[in-house]
Amino acid sequence: MDKSYLRQILNPVLKDPIFVQGLPGFGNVGKIAAHLLIKFCGAKPFAELYSPSFPDYVSVNSKGICHLPRYEFYAAPMDKNDFIIMTGDAQPSFEDVIAHYKLCSETLEFVEKQGCSLIVTMGGVPITEEKTQVYVAATSTRLALEFMEKGAVIYSKGRIAGATGLMLGFAKEHNLEGICLLGATTGFRADRGAGFSVFKFLMKALGNEVKEGL
């Protein structure tokens, strides 16, 4: 495999879906939040993206079955909002800038074809103290203020690395709306608490009630 390959399993019927991305990263906050959203929505896998830019290992599940690293796309038809949720095993190396740009471009091209006009990325932001907080960055002042009024803090630290940030940049270049939600985490381990906070905030902001016991 010398280039990316997208394998479509199903053709879901969705209306104006919101694209939500949560990948491995600091505290694994984005990936945890994405998996909580998949569980909450009962989302079903419908496509997979493979790339030679992913790390050179296979992932093995609880039944001993292995597969190449990949991005997975899930479809969730819902009463209030339809979703396309993307998560995955890994990201390219942070030193491989070209790979990040290429995969983000291919991802955005695919979800645009599915009718997505709002892009949401989720991740973690490092803090030194233990506290629960969700930060927001956006493609417009209006969106940033809208989510700040719903309880997020404006993220003004300067940079958001990897696909979590780049997808927002690509969305803006394509005249799409986008927000990034970052959960505060010390990042020393997989932070389910921060992942739940980001997931719960997103659902509340979109008008969905989430029970603590999810």
Secondary structure: elements and pairs:
Layout: E1 5-8, E2 18-22, H1 29-41, E3 44-50, E4 59-60, E5 66-67, E6 71-76, E7 83-88, H2 97-113, E8 118-126, E9 134-138, H3 141-149, E10 153-154, H4 162-173, E11 177-185, H5 192-205
Parallel strand pairs: 2-7, 2-8, 8-11, 9-10
Antiparallel strand pairs: 1-3, 3-6, 4-5, 6-7, 9-11
Helix pairs in contact: 1-5, 2-4
Question: What's this model, at a glance?
Answer:
By secondary structure, the chain is an alpha/beta fold.
Counted up, domains total: 1
- The appropriate CATH architecture is 3-Layer(aba) Sandwich
Helicity level: 25-40%
Strand content: 25-35%
The quaternary organization reads as single chain
Keywords:
30% helix; two-stranded antiparallel sheet; 214 residues; single chain; 11 strands; alpha/beta; 9-stranded mixed beta sheet; globular
Overview of the molecule:
With 214 residues, the protein is α/β, with parallel strands linked by helices. The protein has a single domain, classed as PAC-like subunit (Rossmann fold). The protein has 5 helices and 11 strands, in the order E-E-H-E-E-E-E-E-H-E-E-H-E-H-E-H. The strands form 2 sheets. It has a 9-stranded mixed beta sheet, with helices on both faces. It has a two-stranded antiparallel ribbon with strand order 4-5. Strand 9, helix 3 (141-149) and strand 10 (153-154) form a beta-alpha-beta unit. Helix 1 crosses helix 5 and helix 2 (97-113) packs across helix 4. It is globular, with a radius of gyration of 16 Å.
